[in-house]
Fold each of these.
Amino acid sequence: MISILGYYSTQFGELWERSLFDLVKESIDSLLKESKIEKKEIDAIFFSNMMSGILENNLHGSSKIAQLLNTHIPIFRSEAACASGGMAVYLAVQYLKANPGKTVIVVGAEKMTDFSPEEAVEGLMAAASGEEQEAGLTFPGLYALLAQIYLNSYHYKHENIGAISVKNHFHGFLNEKAHFKRKVTLKQVLSSPKIASPLGVLDCSPISDGASAIIITSNTKKIKQAKRTCSILSSEIASDSISFMERERLDSLTSTVVAGNKAFKEAGIKRSDIRVAELHDCFSIAEILGMEDLGFWKKGEGGKRALAYETMLGNSGSIIVNTSGGLKAAGHPIGATGIKQVGEIFLQLTHQADKRQVHDVYYGLAHNVGGSGGTAVVTILGI
Amino acid sequence: MISPVKIWRRQKNIRNMLGKKGVVLSWTIIYTPSNDFKKSAPYPVLLAQLDSGEKVVGQYVGTLYNDLKIGMRIRTILRKTRITHNEDIISYGIKFTNEI
Amino acid sequence: MFGILSYGYYIPRFRIKTEDIASVWGKNSTDIIHSLAVKEKSVAGIDEDSLTMAYESSSMALKSSKVKKKNIKTVFFGSESPPYAVNPASTTLAHFLGIEEQYLASDMQFACKAATGGIIIASGLIASGFTKNALVVASDKATGRPHDALEYTAASGSVALLLGKTNLAVRIIDMTSYSSDTPDFWRREGIRYPSHSGRFTGKPSYFHHIFQASTLILKKNKMKPTDFAYAVFHMPNGTFPLKVGSMLGFTERQISPSLVVNTLGNSYTASGLMGLVSVLEIAKTNDYIYFASYGSGAGSDAFILQVTSKLQKIKHEFKSAMENKEYINYAHYLRCMEII
């Protein structure tokens, strides 16, 4: 059995006074304190970060963390663009399967606001292919191309995807750690300045700083002693072409489909068992594609269901999605996101989600995507 | 700065894609580009499928920029991709225009 | 024999009107249009340069000929606005056209006659057997200093000629070149905009060199202006060609079909050649055409050409290319030229 013992996130947003590793240190220190676990009990650390190499010329983060903690334990860094966090969780789970009785920290962090938007946009495009970069594309542009195909194929309008942002801001309003704690209306989303048509500012997740960390263990004694814990029933990862035009389908992310199918099979549960999920809404369209690709919604009906706000807190829907505010409202510090998602499900399953609490939750899912779908990680938790 | 060697390697592929016709599968207009593309913004980017089968992304520089449609016919041409006025080697690449 | 097998051209579609430039500087556009005889000029887009335009015109020239690429062992690129101060565009052009390995590439500069000098040089290479065919391309994205007179005329365009000994659509009967050291128009290394010596660019420069070259070649070949169907001269504006033609004895009727400068502006190395293309599109078999280029600094290359029956098979749609236009305003023009 592999279980989560604790979770901590820093505030997400523009954190001028804190550097990347200030955020890492804060998350690890706070996490250990709140979980009442000592540093010496940690056997390894998995560190997730995408852009410190490109933006700050800082790599070898594992060694930097060793310095901060004054330790010699093994520390691993993972990078899969925006799925770096999910990948770190997956790798930690594999490590624990191979090393029973151990306890690890998975920490992800990103520092993006020290740089101009153009530098951040360019850095993010490292997650796309050379051809996509030479075409002058940006990540909003890539997802806009996907959005156009989706809207055109299934006869939807901008409002059918914009509604996702409204929902996620409603949730973010309830999350103290969110980058944006304010609600938005559909009208505001549809009229927000265009970034890459049809996507406007309010269809796109922001550039944020932040760090998140969780403790995972395969130590049965610790699990028994823990006041609040939930188990990781499955963690599966799938890859796909980096160039989205080389993929089998342009209206679906196959990596999500493959990872999702593997995760549900491994966990031995049905889609309808999932009551709460954190989906990768880097752009409004991405959450809709995610719902369809994970099998919660049929292909093509996402636009309709999104506009009906079926997955919003307080609605009678069978699954509530992105109570953290998603990437859109909580913020998207790239390396931290995948871990924050797992952490939010942990909070939901252990009844620590305050005003965002969904009731009767036994199973939850986290869905983390890298780039335009080159990597997808699906993690299923249960209590 | 992109390595001139990288540009040199890429140029061989670019030659093979020039003067080809195809159809638009998707399009968007980019308003917030990265640095090297700032001077061209806002600009349309297309995903097109060439009649020879390959799928290609690139900027559109034809006359129908106010009326882009999925299914439109295009052809590939040679243009500068990055607009920079510095010491780097110039990056030439594929863009799209109207079929004729 | 030596001559042209096929030709290609490229005119970017943006145009800016003289009146839209004049109004920015508070000038009277009617006066300017009257003295320059230029109503509007072509402007290349921000992502176009002399190389991308040369690729377009060369592709057209190669498409209308069955010449094998391996027979083109000479590629000349003439421009005043090459992409690099040091780095040949001729090799980049050849690469994209699929001409490889055993060929001579050379970039040339001599103000507006950079390419026509290349024609004369190519004739020697072809006659000696160095190469069966030569590709000579003229291409410019000419910039004028804002608020200067040249701003109304400096334009963008490219013309490519495929030359050889056989299958000629146009025979080049004779060529001559007249040169001298004349400071009429120049640009120093590292300086963005060209400079000129005002009215000195007229009589001692443009007129003197074209007149001398023309007089020499006509005398040598015992030909008179009346022997020619058309006369084409380099076009810095719409009035100079008519004036120099008149000095030599050519009529307005022979010259005006080539005056593309009225609506395209002066595309520098491609200017005269664009006028030649315009005339080739309407010329008849056996027509004699007189062509003289002019390059500041200074020199003139003069050519006596004769159309063969093969020309009819390779004509294009130059007129509709001229009409394919989109007007832009001054701010957009400054963006295209990367002045802002």
Amino acid sequence: MPMAHAPSIIEHLKPTHWPVARWRRHADRYGWFARMLFICCGLVVATADALAEMTGTAPSVVSDLTARNQVADLNQKERVALRVAVASNFAPTLKALAPAFEAASGHRLHISAASSAKLFAQIQNGAPFDVFLSADTELPQRLIASQRRNSPLNSEFNSTPQAYAYGRLALWCRPACPDTLDAITQRLNSAPGVAVANPRLAPYGRATQEVLTALKATPQRLITGENIGQAYRFIESGNVQIGFIAWSQAILGQIPDEEVWLVPANLHGPIIQAAVLTPQCRYPQAGDALLEFLRNASAQITQQGYDSPYE
Amino acid sequence: MTAWTIPFDGADLQALWLTLKLASVVTGLLLCIGMPLALWLSQHQQSTIQRRCASVVQAIVALPLVLPPTVLGFYLLIAFRPDSFLGHTSSALGLGPLAFSFNGLVVASMIYSLPFVVQPLVNAFRSIDQRHREAAATLGAGRWDTFRYITLPLARPGVITAAVLGFAHTIGEFGVVLMIGGNIAGETRVASVQIYDHVEALAYPQAHALSALLLVFSFIVLLAVYGRQAKRGAQGWL
């Protein structure tokens, strides 16, 4: 068989029974070059990407085009899968309302629940959520403010935070809750520990602090949970006998009436839970449909343990 | 920026001090409990029943490796109830309620870091030739003398590894502390929980500062331990 060129030394060392394609036998001669080329291309792309991000220029052309295409597609009435990031305290309520929304609008809901601060950090770093249902008003406002700072030319995004529920606080006392304010204050002062949500992190925790100040109660020890859910778990596990939970949790957990006291709303500032469309919302019209649905669903929201702003 | 201030305060330093205290106490206790256990597990078992027992115990010791920390913390929260067995034991011993206290954290950390201390010890003791022990026995050394003068010096790299692993693992412990800690300043608010609180409250400068301090301190400690080992020419390393 006539040879096209002289074989390299490596070829002599390779076993002859090794079934390697002819083009691969000489790959090692060009291998280093191909590798260098690949690495250089990768470095160039990475540097360009990083520079673009640092100088704050518009997102890359490819993603801009696809975003515009997706928003354009929605001008027709089509059913989409809406990704919703919801604060964990409202998650059971939203899951209960989801079938009604899906039946009314035809859009599907994909719900992710976590604490509002975590969701805020994730959305700010590009998490693919369309709607953000927070447990307070500050985080949605911060999201919009940072979006305006980062890409002021993006005029398509002009969502404003919309309140969808007012949270209510409840006191869970085991074995039974006193009736009068004085008795409750005394119970709070004498208990070895009172479970609360962290006032620094959770709006329910801040409301709890306001209630304790209003009642002039000085508990001996505050067992602070990371969020209101953890405070609930502390009491439910039996390690703490008294603590503040969300009224919606009391309804969901079917706690007996005598163990729970609904805190009057005038003892603390309103726990306003606001929703907003994220900057990376792919389907603004579907998102607006969800917000409108929440505005109209005041009866169900009240049933689940919140106050509605739209009654 | 007019003045560059370190975003630190007394609460962060207190959390750091608490972390170090917890890690030291847990490592010390685990070494005390782990060494007899590791000695027993590393010995050549005589009968089948003993072998079965040893393998069951070794599997139980390795269980905390498998369970997610938050799950472990959740079950410990249930187990530490005042009316449970552990609750009664601790109140009888005078330790008070275990949940939301430093003592409870110590117990939980000991369970969580047990495999990280016991397994290197078992491997270290297993690597010692039986003949040293037999020679010591022929010369009339009792069990304690054998352990103190033969076994322990020969197993020193493994013991150091076990201590370092237990210490580092307890410093980094988060899930269990979050579940049963209660975030009480000065008692259960360790550095990992404090960093998490800063991140959740969107106070990123404080989070960066405390994380950097924790990282630097842990690195210095580990460097000191491994540097001394290298200087002494010990053969074992992680």
